[in-house]
Description:
This protein is an alpha+beta fold. Helices cover 56% and strands 12% of the residues. The radius of gyration is 32 Å and the shape is rod-shaped.
Amino acid sequence: MNLLIIRLLIFAVVFFAGLKLYRMYREWKFEQQDQGPTSHEGGKMVRCTWCKVHLPEQDALREKGEWFCCGDHRDKFITESRQGDDADGDNDDDTQGR
């Protein structure tokens, strides 16, 4: 008789512990659903002009109609475009003095 009561008590403890864990899991799952989409979901993706990596528009930098993933790539692109303009030989400063 004592053995039967001990088994019932152990079963009851295991049952209530399992029930408690299940409720905690459901609450955690419900909280995860309430948070909604992360900041990167559902946004427009743009491509960095320098390295061609796609990233969310809200994380990108925009300069003169071009998109960049970071300030370094923006600066490199601007520096390169200035050097390309100077190398063309179409410097307007020389022609205005004549």
